[in-house]
Amino acid sequence: MPREITAYSNPLIKRMRNLRDKRHRREEGLFLAEGLRILTEAREAGRIPDYLFYTAESARHPLVAPLVAATEAQGGEAIETNADILSKLSGKDNPGSVVGVYPEFALELSAIDRSTAPIWLVAERLRDPGNLGTILRTGDAVGAGGLILLDDCVDPFSVEAVRASMGALFTVPVARARWEEFEPWLRAGPGQLVGLSLDTSHDYQAPRYAAPTFLLTGNEAQGMPPHMEQACDLLVKIPMLGKADSLNAAVATAVMAYEVRNQFRHG
Amino acid sequence: MPREITAYSNPLIKRMRNLRDKRHRREEGLFLAEGLRILTEAREAGRIPDYLFYTAESARHPLVAPLVAATEAQGGEAIETNADILSKLSGKDNPGSVVGVYPEFALELSAIDRSTAPIWLVAERLRDPGNLGTILRTGDAVGAGGLILLDDCVDPFSVEAVRASMGALFTVPVARARWEEFEPWLRAGPGQLVGLSLDTSHDYQAPRYAAPTFLLTGNEAQGMPPHMEQACDLLVKIPMLGKADSLNAAVATAVMAYEVRNQFRHG
């Protein structure tokens, strides 16, 4: 039976709101996601929240009942609240109709079966949560096996990253590793490491890619460090006609990932 | 001779800081841009700030002197200030070393010569300033003639849009128009209107595009309205393999723009 919380001073609300900070997420092992579309995507992927917050009004939506049922069936708590508290949890004026609090999940490199997908996305020191979420969304679209985050990337469980992923955080596996772990793991099996770089004249459409392709995108401002460039099987560049010397990192990843995917689908 | 401002209460600083709000930008006809890279890009494109703010420390950077000189030569004011004020102007903890205040510029549809470029980007009701800036950056890279913003788009002169454009706001012409103006203008000359849509099975790689191609991207959440879809010469879809039904709008625009550009360069 759902309980009702309407006071912002309620300790659970305060605790959940703190999950907007990385330190609290780390301590609790929980993160926030918002919006019916994203929570439904999560449910369909088998991810059920520990806590589900909704309003009396949103309870009438046909997609909310299955969320409430799934949450309670799995021992979580469904909590009716008001729009003001929902908006404080999400940090948005217009938070959508539901907020879920989920246990963080982690994927070990050793648990990845690279034969399950022809494309894998890899990013190193990604700083922008919007880019991270957008890359996950692209990963879902191109059928990537997962996203491997190298070294000090922004937290994929931040509110901004979850939002930008539009639910892909729940459908695209995310692993985190140091380069020193990743490189031996990569070399212990088949696959080519293709790096996006500005330090090459090799056009991204010239090579014939072979599955599995691991597509490596470097830090937004600096690109990848020299030792990673040297470790790539191939460095490629997306040609640019204008004044700027680089594309947005999520855009470059997408243009590249669609090139690989298009080659695979056309033969 | 540069003047010095170190008090946040200085009326000019207050006035400039207000430019972070759309209403004040509209009243003043001015907008903020930050960072040496972006301001230098602007200078090279012939855009000189009315006001240039820098710190004593940044004054030693070899790219700051030409900015100061250009600003003063054009009757603008170069103002030495401190990092705290720079950061308050930009709204970022780490604002970079310079902030410029520029006159807004506008481009009329009637002033566009479509024969100058094979690709033109068009977006309608774009809501996210990061997407707008990212699309400008992509426009620069693919050699687009400009970006035409239809109906109620987010302000291209917002701090977030300027930042995401990484300087492309200064190099890629931006026009704003209502659909009712755009459609007759478009049809008064050569060019095909290609719309990105989820309501078609037509693969984006199937058509042979012809210059000039006007590439239309719809609103992030809703796509474009039916009357615009009907007005397109061609609706195309980027295939998606995953659970999600759409890509980020800036990503979709880039994947599509590179397909058109690649066809033009290869054939």
SSE map:
Two copies of one chain form a homodimer.
Chain A: E1 3-4, H1 11-17, H2 22-28, E2 30-34, H3 36-44, E3 51-55, H4 64-73, E4 77-81, H5 83-90, E5 98-103, E6 119-124, H6 129-142, E7 147-150, H7 159-165, H8 168-171, E8 174-177, H9 179-187, E9 192-196, E10 213-217, H10 226-231, E11 234-236, H11 249-266
Parallel strand pairs in A: 1-4, 3-4, 6-7, 6-10, 7-8, 9-10, 9-11
Antiparallel strand pairs in A: 2-5, 3-5
Helix pairs in contact in A: 6-7, 6-11
Family (chains A, B): Belongs to the class IV-like SAM-binding methyltransferase superfamily. RNA methyltransferase TrmH family.
GO molecular function (chains A, B): RNA binding; RNA methyltransferase activity
Organism (chains A, B): Sphingomonas pokkalii
Structural overview:
The structure is a homodimer of 267-residue chains. By secondary structure, chain A is α/β, with parallel strands linked by helices. Chain A folds into two domains: 3-103, 60s Ribosomal Protein L30, Chain: A, CATH 3.30.1330; 109-266, 3-Layer(aba) Sandwich (Alpha/beta knot), CATH 3.40.1280.10. Helices cover 37% and strands 19% of the residues of chain A. The first copy, chain A, has eleven helices and eleven strands. Chain A has helices at residues 11-17, 22-28, 36-44, 64-73, 83-90, 129-142, 159-165, 168-171, 179-187, 226-231, 249-266; strands at residues 3-4, 30-34, 51-55, 77-81, 98-103, 119-124, 147-150, 174-177, 192-196, 213-217, 234-236. In chain A, the strands form two sheets. The first copy, chain A, has a six-stranded parallel β-sheet. Chain A has a five-stranded mixed β-sheet with strand order 1-4-3-5-2. The model of chain A has no long low-confidence stretch (mean pLDDT 95). Chain A binds chain B through residues 41, 44-45, 130, 134, 137-143, 164, 166-168, 171-172, 205, 238-244, 246-248, 250-251, 254-255, 258, 261-262, 265, and chain B through 41, 44-45, 130, 134, 137-143, 164, 166-168, 171-172, 205, 238-244, 246-248, 250-251, 254-255, 258, 261-262, 265.
